[in-house]
Fold this protein.
Amino acid sequence: MRAKTIPTSPAINSKDTSPSSYAVAGQLVVAPKARPGLYLVATPIGNLGDITLRALETLAGVDLIACEDTRITRRLTERYAIAAELTPYHEHNAEAARPKILQRLAEGAAIGLVSDAGTPLISDPGYKLVREACAAGHTVTALPGPSSVLAALSVAALPTDRFFFEGFLPAKQQARRHRLTELARIDATLVLFESGSRVQDTLADLAAIMGSREAAICRELTKLHEEISRAAVSELAERADTLEKRGEFVLVIGPPPRDADVMTSGDLDALLKEQLQMHSVKDAVMHAVELSGRPRREVYARALALAKVIEARETDGQD
């Protein structure tokens, strides 16, 4: 069955449309009923014009749309005059909501799954629903579209042949630095998510561990106030206090240099300081030798020197 286009006025109210229709450029389009199954529908990350025609047809044709925040998804459905039933599905209600969605699927329903922005299952709880739907034998269909990860990689002007998506880093500095130390060894471009409230702290930690690498800060991608800043991590960290904190951030960090098998002295010191805050000298040296590629004797000597400095500072602070 093919969609039918019906001329109508530019002003279309979703309350006046049927559950199986959507509007584009002043035209009301009657969409076919979606076949039973779960549809993973990518939605705009900012600019509502980035929705695909296939996504509109599917969202208009399903029986139910499961979404993180019904208020956010309703902006999209109202923009395109889609009169669909919405139900919340997010990390806080997933355990209770998932069995109800699976039951609807078992009854032959067609259900769309969307995130607040971008592609479902990227930094959201959708994978558990997909896993259980597949296990129950239901058809699961992906509708590709907008993704802040791919958008940031496209504009960062950094290598894209290999990349590693980390998502959000730990909120606490000690855990964050430990994770960044691990990520520094990955031979690929790194993609991180960050909030405006923590982006300065994260950039400072990145500078301490990967300061010489090229990077890009991507803020409010596809939106009216989109900003892209490209420079070495250390330079971006120095300018962090001038950043507009409102909005969503994607940080893209270039891969380590090809000759970076042996860590620089400065990076080794930063690594040891971070490790000594969490471990004994013996354990800190063990981790640093593994990550730095430097001889154990050299790392051990540097760890002892740094440990004495740290101990002296702590002693002075108590006096």
Remarks:
- DSSP finds eleven helices and 13 strands in the chain.
- The CA atoms of residues 276 and 307 lie 7 Å apart.
